[in-house]
Amino acid sequence: MTSFDPTELAHRYAREETEELIRIAFVRSSEYVAEAVAVAREELRRRGVEGGSDDRITVVREEEAERQKVADEPLDLGVKIVCFLLPSAVGAICALSHSNQGKTRAAADAWTCTGLGFLVRTALLIGFIVAN
Q: What contacts 24+ positions apart, CB below 8 Å, involve 115-120?
């Protein structure tokens, strides 16, 4: 395990975008150790961003909420069917495309349908071979 170096982190955060520091300090602070959050808030204070009262924090929170909304959208039924029936490059391309768009749930749904499609095809192939 590496030790926490607040000085090194302060230098790194000094080069970080303000919006990313707002995410660390106020929006996703539960995902970081308390010391990292404190260093991010100190850097934001140096940049004139005060907690809670700054409009930039509100904007980043709203952007993050919208990003999460997009990430949580399920895959459309028609696309699920296509991934199930064509569990090859089509399913993989669909999953990767959704992942690149930040649609993590839809990407997971596409991978699931693609995997189930492969399983069903394999089971049918084995059943056909055994029957003959």
A: 115/87, 116/84, 116/87, 117/83, 117/84, 117/85, 117/86, 117/87, 117/91, 118/87, 120/84
